[in-house]
Amino acid sequence: MGRWELGHARFGERKSPPGRTACAAPWGAPPLLPARLLARPCSAAVPIPATFPVTGCILAATAADPAPPTALGSPRVCPRAGSSLEPQESSMEAPAMLEELPPGAAPGKGAHELFGYVGIEAVLDQMRVKTMKTGFEFNIMVVGQSGLGKSTMVNTLFKSKVSRKASQPGQEERIPKTVQLQSVTHVIEEKGVKMKLTVTDTPGFGDQINNENCWDPIIKYINEQYERYLREEILITRKRKIPDTRVHGCVYFVPPTGHWLRPLDLEFMRRLSKIVNVVPVIAKADTLTLEERAEFKQRIQQDLKAHAISVYPQEDFDEDPDDRLLNNVIREKIPFAVVGADQEHQVNGRRVTPGCTLTWVGALPTATSPQPALSCLAVENPMHCEFPMLRDLLIRSHLQDLKDITHNVHYESYRVRRLNESNRVALSPANGLPGKDEDDSNL
Amino acid sequence: CSSGTRFPNGDGTDGEYVGFATLPNQVHRKSVKKGFDFTLMVAGESGLGKSTLVNSLFLTDMYRDRKLLNAEERITQTVEITKHVVDIEEKGVKLRLTIVDTPGFGDAVNNTECWKPVADYIDQQFEQYFRDESGLNRKNIQDNRVHCCIYFISPFGHGLRPLDVEFMRALHQRVNIVPVLAKADTLTPSEVERMKNKIREEIDHYGIRIYQFPECDSDEDEEFKLQDQALKESIPFAVIGSNTVVEAKGRRVRGRLYPWGIVEGNAMGGPVPAGTGTSRTPSPSCGPHAGGLGRGAGGAP
């Protein structure tokens, strides 16, 4: 009798979430199998011994269970007096609940409670171990006029000297005649997680007198990376891990004029937001006071909306309402006002890193104190600049999202375009594609 | 005027007194009555603080009803020349100030020859003055020629940009160019030094003739000479303009208020902060060298 009591008491607690925590039996009695399983006809695939050490969670119904719920005789196993539930309640409840539990339902759809610890969550650990072994790849591109602090920003983001200037020290800054693209790859490691980081810089962008089509080399480069990946992907025998050189995020530096987006900015962002995730930032934002900054941001947001430019995080790709809420918060703050600085400074004996010291004259120099007062702009201080938010967006919270959107959206649309184009032109026969082409054209 | 002024002879005795030493005073009185004309042109990319600097230089609000263009209008914007005229008076001296602005300069994607409207405007003013001068009635000639052009260099680059070089090369024969390093509160003092040196080097390299302040006379006092020397060495001037008055340590100053500190614009009544040269900028245009700018403009080919 006691056994059935326990079983039904467990059934009554429908509100408890499935999972290991819900399975902890609040009562001290030895956990037993729920009444349902025992009442099942013996064609059940898995005979469960009575000594099986399960707690009060329901095992997901096995696929082999053909018996409809009404065939179960559980209404007949209503508890006698002494159970916590009223007899008629449980009799009414049990069939209703049993109808809810689809007999042949596949496990893991969230509607099933486990009555034992299966260990499904251990898959997360396995994934973690595996990714730690293989490492991540992340490719970021920085675009903007020279002198806006792109290399400094990259160094500050990754707290190491990863920009192209770091790899060519001592070279003087010269504005190249055409836009060049220089990629620098580093492997950085933190707490056992390895990341292969590629930073692509674009010196010469927007520096000339005539900047028409200065975005063409950049678009070409991005498409080349997609092409490279596509070629690897459509091989018959392809590599287990295709090397991913596609640009996952493009950080665009807007000069802090304080007025509006320049035509060059608009043109560039319009073209590139279609093929890559564009994150606009206001560079050297220490030029603007807080009011100017807020006004500038507002005008930029209006401009972006007026020209239908969708920057990262794009509204169309929000997966669920939680994501949308989070991304809305971010979208209000776009573009982030950042200041890059990779030097450490001492202020009042404390180390402030990184930051830049500026001669802000809080008090004019007098005869007794000829040195003007120094104050320090700390980059990590969210009151001063929004660099922490950018870092969180790019690295701490949305890095995987950037990669996913690049792979699922931008790469896919490139692929669709390319494969449609190449329907007319047969790809190399070594890949076995002419057959595929014929099929497509017959459709 | 002539009473009470005695001029000694070479041998220490009072000689015959003629009285033409009062001429400067007479000139002074006449000019004060007539008033001065000064035309200043500001050029540079938008967003470098030109209007703010003009306002803080002359402590007036010249751009009160300026409106910024919206997105569609900006795509097709071309370089315009706008003129604002304001009459200011200080201690009885009248100044008719004309500010010539160049909105749209350097903003488009393709900026080839965007200095052409500016050069044409300057030539036009010269042409008009030439005609007036060759005319019969020369009593009231309006001098609209551009006396000085302040060119704003962006602090975000690494020295001069190709556009800056082309503009200055096109105009240095026509007008006195005073290069200025805009928004200098972005830079740390060492960065300011570095930028200035770089810009000076590049100006020499490209053969741009910027306005040279005239040498001060040998009989000026030491302090003035030192000041003059310091002035020459700090070209291009690193400026910060400000329209707002902020409180700093109990004093009200023109400045910019940041979360991490306050920047002083013009130091009102205080000693000059070394290295920024902000409060020095008013003096060349309005101080001892203003006459030189006028003369320079007249003499330029």
UniProtKB/TrEMBL annotation, chain A:
PANTHER family: SEPTIN (PTHR18884)
BP terms from Gene Ontology: cell division
Pfam family, one: Septin
Molecular functions (GO terms): GTP binding; protein homodimerization activity
Record domain Septin-type G: where: 134-421
Protein's name according to its UniProt entry: Septin 12
Organism, as annotated: Anser brachyrhynchus
Ranges of Basic and acidic residues composition bias in the record: 1-16
Coiled coil: none
One term under GO cellular component: septin complex
UniProt subcellular location: Cytoplasm, Cytoskeleton
Family: Belongs to the TRAFAC class TrmE-Era-EngA-EngB-Septin-like GTPase superfamily. Septin GTPase family.
Record key words, sorted: Cell cycle, Cell division, Cytoplasm, Cytoskeleton, GTP-binding, Nucleotide-binding
UniProtKB/TrEMBL annotation, chain B:
Pfam families assigned to the protein according to its UniProt record, in alphabetical order: Septin
Presence of keyword GTP-binding: yes
Sequence ranges assigned to domain Septin-type G in this UniProt record: 34-301
GO CC terms of this entry: cytoplasm
Region of interest (Disordered), ranges: 268-301
InterPro entries per record: G_SEPTIN_dom (IPR030379), P-loop_NTPase (IPR027417), Septin (IPR016491)
Comp. bias (Gly residues): 289-301
Gene Ontology terms describing biological process: cell division
CDD domains per the UniProt record, alphabetical: CDC_Septin
SUPFAM superfamilies named among the record's database cross-references: P-loop containing nucleoside triphosphate hydrolases
Any one GO MF annotation of this record: GTP binding
Principal location: cytoplasm
Family to which the UniProt record says this protein belongs: Belongs to the TRAFAC class TrmE-Era-EngA-EngB-Septin-like GTPase superfamily. Septin GTPase family.
Protein name: Septin-type G domain-containing protein
Lineage of producing organism: Eukaryota, Metazoa, Chordata, Craniata, Vertebrata
